[in-house]
Design the sequence.
């Protein structure tokens, strides 16, 4: 997850490599990543390097750096993969990878099989019941698994993800479990409302793309399939 002891992996886009090097970051040829070796105390006034720091190392942030953040059941399937043309979604997710230097924006790590995955950052208006897209960022598979806590539980990764949640945030196991339980309670509450709508205006504004003509139909079909799979999983656990 880090290079030499005490060094911090940086999320440096390839087109900003000279800026990172000029600010004092060290390039590791083996890991193909820039590192900051002199500690957080020396970085506060170094604006270029500060911008490249993963969230868990930034002095202006406090935990939780990552937490479970589950989509209400009636919105399962309402994601950019389903709602956009394939080439548009590929452009958006690859842009997120590039901006992060193919490193996780939370921890700076990478996965064992592929470096990072694209995570859609949704905000929820619990008064008007609107899911609003705020952006797309690159996460390593472990941090991404925290975000999708329900799926992690369904696929038998609960204990691993809880340990990761505790480590990232500097928490005890009990604190990690409490966070996960709170997230699940919030998900149940939000899933009790079926009138949610989905706002992807961010991607339309930033990338100039439009949903496919049958986006609502495709999202609804995906949602029904995911609900059916979840029911099968629960039925299997009860047998």
Sequence:
């Amino acid at each position: 997850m880090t290079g030499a002891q005490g060094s911090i992996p940086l999320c440096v886009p390839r087109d900003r490599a000279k800026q990172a090097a000029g600010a004092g970051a060290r390039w590791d040829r083996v890991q193909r990543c820039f590192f900051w070796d002199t500690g957080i105390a020396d970085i506060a006034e170094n604006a270029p390097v500060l911008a490249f720091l993963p969230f868990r190392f930034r002095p202006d942030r406090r935990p939780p750096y990552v937490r479970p953040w589950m989509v209400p059941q009636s919105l399962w399937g309402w994601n950019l993969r389903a709602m956009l043309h394939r080439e548009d979604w590929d452009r958006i997710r690859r842009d997120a990878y590039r901006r992060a230097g193919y490193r996780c924006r939370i921890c700076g790590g990478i996965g064992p099989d592929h470096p990072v995955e694209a995570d859609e950052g949704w905000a929820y208006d619990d008064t008007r019941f609107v899911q609003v897209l705020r952006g797309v960022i690159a996460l390593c598979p472990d941090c991404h698994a925290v975000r999708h806590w329900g799926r992690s539980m369904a696929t038998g990764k609960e204990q691993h993800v809880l340990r990761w949640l505790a480590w990232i945030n500097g928490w005890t196991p009990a604190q990690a479990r409490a966070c996960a339980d709170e997230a699940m309670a919030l998900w149940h509450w939000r899933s009790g409302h079926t009138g949610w709508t989905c706002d992807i205006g961010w991607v339309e504004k930033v990338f100039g793309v439009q949903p496919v003509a049958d986006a609502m139909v495709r999202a609804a079909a995906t949602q029904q399939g995911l609900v059916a799979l979840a029911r099968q999983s629960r039925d299997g656990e009860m047998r």
Notes: The mean pLDDT is 89. Residues 74 and 194 are 6 Å apart (CA to CA).
